Amino acid sequence: MYKVLENGGQLTQKDLIRETSLPSRTVRYALNRLKEEQFLIERHYFIDARQSLYGLIQPSKEVVTV
Fold first, then answer.
1. Name one Pfam family in it (predicted).
2. Which of 3, 11, 42, 64 is the most exposed place for a label (fewest CB within 10 A)?
């Protein structure tokens, strides 16, 4: 889920279900866990007020070791 959000930007729950092919319950669980760990930000989706947009607070940066 994290990688999908990292590559896809801000997505709705429906978009995440479609992108990952996971059941809705699994996606909701993953979103809740990411929010608890403060990796996720939830915003209002103005196009459809019944949904929210989910995105990462700060996308991870790869660390290169020499």
1. HTH_24
2. 64
Average pLDDT, the chain: 85
CA distances in angstroms from 12 to 24, 43, 62, listed in the order given = 12, 10, 25
Domain ranges of the chain: 2-56
Cβ neighbors of 43 (< 8 A, separation 6 or more) are 10, 52, 53, 54, 55
Are residues 35 and 56 in contact, defined by beta-carbon separation less than 8 angstroms? no
Give this prediction's pTM: 0.74
Token pair for 28: 């909701």
